[in-house]
Amino acid sequence: MTDTPRFFDEMHHGDGSPRPPYDTYCGWFGSEDLRDLRKKSTDAEQFFRRTGITFNVYGQAEADERLIPFDIVPRIISAREWARLTRGIEQRVRAINAFLHDIYHRQEILRAGRVPVDLIARNEAFLPQMIGMSPPGNVYTHIVGVDLVRTGEDEFYVLEDNARTPSGVSYMLENRETMLQMFPELFTRIKVQPVSDYPRDLRRSLAASAPPNCSSDCTVAVLTPGIHNSAYFEHAFLADQMGVELVEGHDIRITGGKVQMRTTQGYKPIDVLYRRVDDDFLDPLNFRPDSMLGVPGVMDVYRAGGITIANAPGTGIADDKAIYSYMPDIVEFYTGEKAILQNVPTWRCGDADSLAYVLDHLPELVVKEVHGSGGYGMLVGPAASKKELAAFRAKLTAKPGNYIAQPTLALSTVPILTKAGLAPRHVDLRPFVLVAPDKISITPGGLTRVAIKKGSLVVNSSQGGGTKDTWVLEE
Amino acid sequence: MLGKTAGGLFWMFRYLERSENTARLIEAGFRIALTRADGDDDEWTSVLQTAAVSHLYFQKHEQIDAAKAIDFMLRDMSNPSSVLSAIAAARMNARLVRTAITREVWEAVNDTYMILKRELARPVSARDLPEVLALIRQQSALVRGAMHGTMLRNDIFDFCRLGTFLERADNTARILDVKYYVLLPSISQIGSSLDNVQWETILRSVAGMRAYRWITQGETSPIGIADFLIFDTRMPRSLAFSAGKIATNLAYLEKAYGLRHPSHDQIDVISARLTHGTIDRVFEDGLHEFITDFLTDIARLGQQIETDYRFLG
C-alpha cells in the first residue's frame, strides 16, 4: 500500500501510453468517434433488456428486474499474465478440494494444528451430515469462482474463494456475445481466447462426476429456487445452454432411491443435480425444515450414492471468511508448495489483539461480515462517514467474532466509457473454474466487475457495480 | 420435458392468444361504436361478457362507458383478460419456460411486453386507439412468426399449439355464446339494420369479416355465419378448425410418447361432433345448448391435458 492514492491502471502507463495488452485496442479506440461509441453503449443496454439479462434486487420494495450496467471497454489480460493466474487458481482450487475432503474425514489439518479446531467445529458452514461421506470422484467444488484483485503489474490478490454457488458466469458469456455483435472488427484485429465453450465444458464436467452406478447417458439438471430468485436468468440460461432441464423443488420427488423429476411422460431419474439453492434450503428433512425450495430427502439419496450434488453440501466451510485467512497455510499443507496467489492480509476480529488494532484503524480498513456476501453489511473505512464508523464500531465490539478486517486495497483501474470519454474505475475479476475428478479447467477470462461510481471500491452488482467483457489474448 | 414446462408453454400461448383476442374484441366494439349513430354502449356490455369479465368491471365501475370499458380491456391489471395482463402473464410463463423456447421467441415476447408496457402506461385516447391496436396485432404476428420460423417441431411445439387452439376455440365459442340469439332465425329478420350490426360485430370479433364476404359473395345470413364459425375448416378461428388442430397436436404427442390418454378420447368425441355435424342439426337441437356443451367440453379437455401431461405435481 502506498500513501498517495495512486492506482495501477491496466490500460495506460503513468505517461499515458498504452500497456502492451491494450496496444491494438487503444489504436482502434483513438480512431473511433466518441458519439458513435456512446451510441453503441445505449445499443448494448437495449440488447441486454431484450435478451432479458436482468437480475432481481433483494431488499427493494419493487422487486423489479434490473439491468447490470455494462461497459463497452473490454478488460484485457495478456496470455502471460493469464498463464500465471491459472497456475495460481488451479493450485488453490486443488487445495480447497483436498481441504474439504480432509475436514469431513480425518481432519489431519486440525490435528497438525494448522487450522484451529474451534473454527471448524463452531462454524455454521460446517455440515455434520457430510462427515465420512465421499462425493463421487471426490469432487466437492465442481464450480468455483475465485475473486481476484490486482494492485500492480505483478501483484494479484485473492479476495474471496466462492466455493458454494458462484454466480455471474452468464454475464461472462453474454458480455462476450454482446461485444461480438457490436464490434466484430475488433475481434478480427485482436485475437481473443473464446469463452463460449463454457456450457459444454460445464455439462461434461458435471457428467464426469456422476455417481459410479449411473448409466452412460447420465441426466444432469439445474435446480433453481425459482423465477423470483435474483439469479433466475442465469439458472435458465445455463440449463438452456447445456440442454438440460431447469427444475424447482416441486418438480422433484424421491422414489426407488432415486431423485426423479416430473416430466410429461412420468418421472425420470436425475443423476447430477447442479443446484443453485443454498445448503440451508436444499433438503427440509435434513436442514431447514421450513424450506419450500428444496427436495425433501435428497441428502439421504446423496449419502447412499444415488445422485451427485454440485457443489457438494458443506463446501461453504472452505470459502468462509474466517477460514480465508488460513488459505496460504491450507494451500501449503495440501500441495506442499507455497501459494502462488497472495491472500489479502486479514485481521480476525475474534482475536483480542486484532480487534484492538482494527478498532484503532477503522477508517483505513475494510470490514466484512464473516458469513456475508454480495457486499451487504460491509464497511469501507475510507469511504464511510463518521456516523457509519461509529455504528460499525458498536457492531464490532458487540460481536467481534462475526467480522474480519482487511487493509483497503488499491484496486487497479480500467477505464469505462463516460460522456466525457474514458475514465478509470476500479475493477475485480472472477474467473470460473470447473473441477472434474481428473481435470481442472479455467475459462480464459471471467467476469470483470467494475465500480461505476468514481472512486468507489465496491464492485458488487447489488451495490450498483457494472460489468465488462474480459479478454484473454492468444499467445 | 418437465410437466411444469409443458404447462408453462401451454399457458404462455393461451395468454398470447388471449391478448390478441381481447384486442380484436376492443377493435370490434370500437368500430361498431364509430359507425353507428344510436350511440348506446350496448356493444361494450357484450364485449365484457364475451371476455367473461363483466363482474370484474362492475366491481370498479358503476356503469358501462366506452372509455372505461376500453381502458379496462386494454390495460387494467385487475382484469386478467386485459391485453396488458395477458401479455404480462405470457411473458411470466415465457421466463418460466425460457429453456424450452428459442431465443427469437423469447425476445419477441419480451419485446412485445416492453413495447406494450410503454404504450399502455397511460390511458389510450380514442384517437390513438387504432394505432395501438394495430401495434398489438403486429406484435402477436411477430411472436407467431418467431415461433414458426425457429422452433423444433417436437413436443414443445405441440404444447404451444394446444394452448393456442384451446384458447381460440374457447374464445370463438364465447363470442357465439354471447351473441347466439342474434343468429336465431325466429328473432332475426334478414336485412334489418339491428341484426346487421350484430352480425358485423361477430365477424369482426373473429377477424372474419372479409373472409366471410369473400366466401359468400357478400350474402350474409345468420345461419351462414353460424355455419362459418362452427363448421368451416377453412376459417382459422372456427370451432372445427381449432378442434382439428388440438386433435392433430394431441395425436403428435401420442405418437411421440407412445402413450394414449383420456384427453385423446375426449378430443375424438369433440372432433366427431364437428366433423359429422351440420348447421341444420345444430339449430334443430338448439344453438345455445350446442355452444354451452362445447364450452364445457373444451374446459374439461383443458383440465384433462393438464392431468395427462402432469403440468402440476
In short, what is this structure?
The complex is a heterodimer of chains A (475) and B (313). Chain A is an alpha+beta fold and 475 residues long. Helices cover 32% and strands 24% of the residues of chain A.
Give a quick set of tags describing it.
heterodimer; A: 475 residues; alpha+beta; Dna Ligase, domain 1; 5-stranded mixed sheet; 16 helices; B: 313 residues; mainly alpha; 2 domains; 0% strand
Residues in helix, % of chain B: over 70%
Terminal CA distance of chain B reads 14 Å
Strand content of chain B: under 5%
The residue-averaged pLDDT of chain B reads 90
Average pLDDT level of chain A? 90
Helix count from the secondary structure assignment of chain A? 16
Shape of chain B: globular
Describe, in plain words, how this protein is organized in 3D:
The complex is a heterodimer of chains A (475) and B (313). Chain A has helices at 23-30, 34-51, 79-103, 108-111, 117-121, 169-182, 184-189, 198-208, 232-242, 279-282, 298-303, 316-319, 321-324, 327-335, 352-360, 386-398, and strands at residues 55-56, 65-66, 70-77, 143-152, 155-162, 220-223, 245-247, 252-255, 258-263, 266-269, 272-275, 308-310, 342-343, 347-348, 365-369, 379-380, 403-407, 413-418, 421-430, 432-436, 439-442, 447-451, 465-472. Chain A is an alpha+beta fold and 475 residues long. In chain A, the strands form six sheets. In chain A, strands 3-23-22-19-18 form a five-stranded mixed sheet. In chain A, strands 13-5-4-20-21 form a five-stranded mixed sheet. In chain A, helix 2 (34-51) packs across helix 6 and helix 3 (79-103) crosses helix 14. The longest helix of chain A is centred in the N-terminal third of the chain and has 25 residues, at 79-103. Chain A is globular, with a radius of gyration of 22 Å. Residues 57-63 of chain A have low confidence and may be disordered. With 313 residues, chain B is mostly helical. Chain B has two domains: 1-150, no CATH class; 152-313, no CATH class. Chain B is built from 15 helices and no strands. The mean pLDDT of chain B is 90. The A-B interface holds A 49-52, 227, 232-233, 236-237, 239-240, 245-248, 250-251, 253, 261-266 and B 1-6, 92, 95-96, 98-99, 103, 106-107, 110-111, 114, 155, 159, 253, 257, 259, 309-310, 313.
